[in-house]
Amino acid sequence: MKNLIDNQPAPEPYRRPRTKLREYSPLNLIMASAGLQILGIVLTLLGWVNALVSCALPMWKVTAFIGNSIVVAQMVWEGLWMSCVVQSTGQMQCKVYDSLLALPQDLQAARALCVITLLVVLLGLLVYLAGAKCTTCVEDKNSKSRLVLISGITFVISGVLTLIPVSWTAHSIIQDFYNPLVADAQKRELGASLYLGWAASGLLLLGGGLLCCACSSGGAQGPGHYMARYSTSAPHSAIRGPSEYPTKNYV
Questions:
Q1: For this UniProt entry, which segments traverse the membrane (predicted)?
Q2: What is the pLDDT of residues 187-235, one digit of tens each?
Q3: Residue ranges per structural domain of the chain
Q4: What's the Cα-to-Cα distance from 146 to each of 70, 90, 151, 224, rounded to whole Å?
Q5: pTM here?
């Protein structure tokens, strides 16, 4: 019996498998951050152009075609700065508003907010150029990241400022359209400028959000930063090594 026990091979102790580290080069993080910045600033520029066109075009409110007759002699366009009358022959006559106080409240607020939005976007672009990776206005990398973050927040604020007047004007148009006390000749529909304003707001919000994400992904990772990925280790085995068995003398 003693010989059989001595000849039995002892079980090997459990060895934890080695894990391989997956390294992410800082160059890849920098390139990803630069790509997000480029995409964000392109979307922001497109949003600024849409906001400018929406502010300039006199197509915030257009004539509503109500009734059985689809043949009309003229169409009326109302914008922030002027109103236009388009004849059926193709001729168009525009007139700048004589008095600011004569405008509805939604158009008065839209005037101010649109101008503020355009100026805020320009300010955000200047801040971004100071902190962009392709410029040398600021040498410190942390300061560059903060400037990019500030510009992204500025673009998000400008997107909200663009959304407010557009949605307010659309709400006023829809409310008057379904109001039975308003004459059919005074009812208006949503113009093309409102859709451009909504598109501008979405582009500014998306571009500003991408710049904020680029700042967090590129600025938080310092040089030589690596991320390790560990494999799930197997549960500890209950098998004990030969040194863990209690020794007992057999006679």
A1: 29-53, 109-131, 147-174, 194-220
A2: 889 999 999 999 999 999 999 999 888 876 554 444 444 444 444 444 4
A3: 23-66+103-229
A4: 57, 53, 9, 21
A5: 0.72
